[in-house]
Amino acid sequence: MDSSLITHLSSFSAATICEALGNKGYLPSAIKPIAKEMKVCGPAYTVQTMPRDNVLLHRAYAYAQAGDVLIVNCSGFYEAGYWGDLMSLGAKTKGINGLVIDACVRDADDIEAIKSWRWNA
Fold first, then answer.
1. Residue 81: beta bridge partners?
2. Could you give the 3-state DSSP secondary structure of residue 49?
3. Per-residue pLDDT of the chain (121 residues; tens, 9 = 90+)
4. Of 105, 60, 58, 57, residue with least CA distance to 85
5. End-to-end Cα distance, the chain
6. Domains of the chain
7. Facing residues of 105 across strands?
8. Distances (CA, A) of 51 to 7, 48, 56, 76, 78
9. Which terminus of the chain has a smaller tally of CB atoms within 10 A, N or C?
10. What pTM did the predictor assign?
């Protein structure tokens, strides 16, 4: 995807982009950033996990390209800690732009402290 398009799109809110696309692809309201100021924008790298299993998340950030955003569906099981501070550091090192996940994230305070990485969970 053209990086100038991503830069341009990142200046709009997710709600504005969703409405411009005809309200397709919106997320449940329960999916929120760890901190209010956290934002994410980039090409989607989609992941479908098995309940309680984060092995594919490790593989995803290894294979995703710099600038990608990991979009993760955890098969309807939300109460496992699929993602944490060490995975955040690994993804940041790889250049991943962020994470959107429909499950629990652990180490939220430590992840929030990684100020140069924008992401939602």
1. 104
2. coil
3. 678 888 888 889 888 988 998 988 778 888 888 888 888 889 999 999 999 999 999 999 899 999 999 999 999 898 888 999 999 999 999 999 999 999 989 999 999 888 655 544 4
4. 105
5. 23
6. 30-112 (3.50.30.40)
7. 83
8. 34, 10, 11, 7, 8
9. N
10. 0.86
